[in-house]
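pipeline stage [seq->struct] | target=Serpin family protein | organism=Hymenobacter glaciei | residues=401
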Amino acid sequence: MSAFPIFQTDFTTVAQTASSLELLQLAVAADTEKNVAISPLGILAALALLARGADGPTKAALSDVLFGVGANTERAENAFSGWLRQLLNVEDEFLEEAGAILTLASSLWASQPFVLAPEFINAAQSLYNAEVATLDFTASTAALTVNDWVRQRTRGRIDSIVSPESLANLLPPALLLLNAVYFRARWASEFNTYDTHSGPFRLANGTTQQAQLMHQVSTDIGYQAGAGWQAIALPYLSFRRGLSMLIFHPNQPTGLPTFLASLTATNWQSWHRDFKNAPQTEVDLTLPRFRVEWNADLAPALGRLGLTNLFAPGADFAALGYDNEVGGGFIDSVLHKTFLAVDEQGTEAAAVTAIMAMGGSADAPENPPRVVVKVDSPFFYAIVDEADGMLLFAGTVNQLD
């Protein structure tokens, strides 16, 4: 571990934030009324592992999205892996006992008799602790095997990611690159369940839904306000590397699209700094319990980010083990499935990313002022690394199920 730099440059962090936010915006644009949850942490980690098996223009395109145009790819890959190791703290049993869990598991499933390149396997195992296995993709039990891995790594919150048909339709030689993120944490300042009450949540169409509204007054909640919105930072308990949920609530129920349009990497970095530098404020907060489950194929969105050459014959994955002289390999789909729930005690979230590749024949004042934040209409949320603002999960809530 000491051989890898553990600090990413600001240049790389901004590039990863930009890619994360653009992916979210594209996901929201696909269905503006639907609640959305993505895990930039899981998506970037999956793409970074894939990049280790890419060459030529394919690797360059992945590097541009993951680390920024002109980045030193090898150094950036190692730094990203080091950041993941520092963030996850997977060996710390004390954190799990305190209710603070953040894990990321990776695996590679190669069809028989596809042989992955030894250098790629070494990098996948040393940088990402990836499990490597072979699998008969046409077997009736193949999907059960993969989905059982998913279920275990997400502690049952996501029970499947592939179907027998989706695996059988991959032309050989086929590869499935999987990762699973699981997160659970308690609020540093929990809500008292006795203060939770039923109340209206205002929708963008002018109607309302009845919601369970949590309430607390605390000086431990970060606060700032911008053009047409209020924002809060709810820190989590026990993580050695501070993590928080940020919620940006437009003042009007119809204001979420305008806010999302302003959600650039530059603004995000500025708002993150403002939270860190904000004076202590007493926040009178009302926040609904909410739960989001979401899934999509991210291939179209990733194509919009500049990765179109991954999804057609001619992609260069020679470093992964594909033979370019006999058609090479390309990506068929990038499936992403998420779960996120917020209640009085804290947050539980899970995400699975499945990259499916096949043969090429077809990232304190003494008396602080009080502000009132009533999150009773559509809003944006994100779970972030407090040190640099990197997004682990992010999404929008338009209605409460």
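stage status: PASS
auto-comment: The radius of gyration is 21 Å. The CA atoms of residues 272 and 384 lie 10 Å apart.
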